[in-house]
């Protein structure tokens, strides 16, 4: 049987050609729209709760990377340019028909300075940005940044009743924590039960230590049921049990 005598085959060929023509027209329409002068970007909107980012710098970045036809604008390259700005944490860019590009910017929230240079944000990520703002100093292994941020927030909340601020958080070997407060007092929390040990200090601060704060050099809280105090003169008291106001020996040695 000849092909032109097969009605079913001719119908399938006809349908295939029809689909091919439609697809070709659609492709041509897409190419035309992407290169057409009739769909220019007329507005770029930048939103976000911005405190440290320079609005003028954001606008300049947008002007360099988001222009021309709304369909052809390279939003991926624009996103990379925004993410390269020091204070930008995240950015979302989308087209809004017919002529607008909307940019949603999330700003980094700095928590501390990293010893050796740079800042640490609220997600535990390191970054470099110019600022004269005072921040506590973090020191430790780079992989510990996130947990240091989380613990810093909890430590700060525990200390709030004392009015004391954390100036430095050291994460030593085997995750031993040491806090330096804004009055110069050093708290050795050790590796275990750091939060409960800090609560023990807060209690002792109100009961025993506040009146002697000027003469205290550091408080060693690495004991099971008390703490030891070293004075600036070099004198060291025995550890103080948790619920006592006078000095007494603790049970056991300090955590190594």
TrEMBL record:
Question: Where do the segments described as Disordered lie?
Answer: 234-256
| Name this protein carries in UniProt | Cell division protein FtsQ
BP GO terms, sorted: cell septum assembly; FtsZ-dependent cytokinesis
The organism named in the record is Neisseria shayeganii 871
Q: What does this protein do?
A: Essential cell division protein. May link together the upstream cell division proteins, which are predominantly cytoplasmic, with the downstream cell division proteins, which are predominantly periplasmic. May control correct divisome assembly.
Which HAMAP family does the record match to this protein?
FtsQ_subfam
Protein topology in the membrane? Single-pass type II membrane protein
Question: Which keywords does this chain's UniProt record carry?
Answer: Cell cycle, Cell division, Cell inner membrane, Cell membrane, Membrane, Transmembrane, Transmembrane helix
Cellular location(s) = Cell inner membrane; Membrane
Q: Which Pfam families match?
A: FtsQ_DivIB_C, POTRA_1
How this chain assembles, per its entry, is: Part of a complex composed of FtsB, FtsL and FtsQ.
Its main subcellular localisation, reduced to a broad class, is: membrane
Q: Which residues form the POTRA domain?
A: 39-108
Q: Which family does the record assign?
A: Belongs to the FtsQ/DivIB family. FtsQ subfamily.
Q: Which residues cross the membrane?
A: 16-34
Q: Is Cell division a UniProt keyword of this protein?
A: yes
One of the record's GO cellular component terms? plasma membrane
């Amino acid at each position: 049987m000849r092909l032109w005598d097969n009605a079913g085959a001719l119908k399938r060929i006809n349908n295939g050609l029809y689909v091919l023509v439609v697809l070709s027209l659609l492709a041509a329409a897409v190419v035309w729209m992407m290169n057409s002068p009739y769909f220019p970007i007329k507005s770029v909107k930048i939103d976000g709760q911005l405190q440290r980012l320079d609005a003028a710098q954001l606008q300049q970045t947008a002007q360099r990377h988001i222009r021309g036809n709304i369909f052809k604008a390279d939003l991926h390259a624009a996103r990379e340019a925004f993410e390269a700005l020091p204070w930008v944490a995240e950015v979302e860019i989308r087209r809004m028909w017919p002529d607008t590009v909307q940019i949603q910017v999330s700003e980094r929230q700095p928590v501390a300075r990293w010893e050796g240079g740079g800042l640490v944000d609220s997600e535990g990520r390191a970054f470099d940005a110019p600022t004269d703002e005072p921040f506590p100093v973090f020191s430790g292994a780079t992989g510990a940044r996130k947990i240091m941020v989380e613990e810093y927030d909890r430590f700060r909340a525990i200390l709030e009743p004392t009015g004391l601020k954390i100036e430095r958080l050291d994460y030593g070997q085997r995750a031993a924590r040491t806090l330096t407060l804004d009055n110069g007092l050093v708290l050795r929390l050790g590796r275990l039960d750091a939060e409960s040990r800090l609560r023990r200090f807060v209690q002792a601060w109100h009961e025993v230590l506040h009146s002697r704060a000027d003469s205290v050099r550091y408080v060693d809280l690495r004991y099971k049921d008390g703490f030891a105090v070293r004075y600036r003169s070099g004198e060291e008291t025995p550890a103080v049990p948790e619920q006592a106001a006078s000095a007494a020996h603790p049970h056991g040695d300090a955590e190594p």
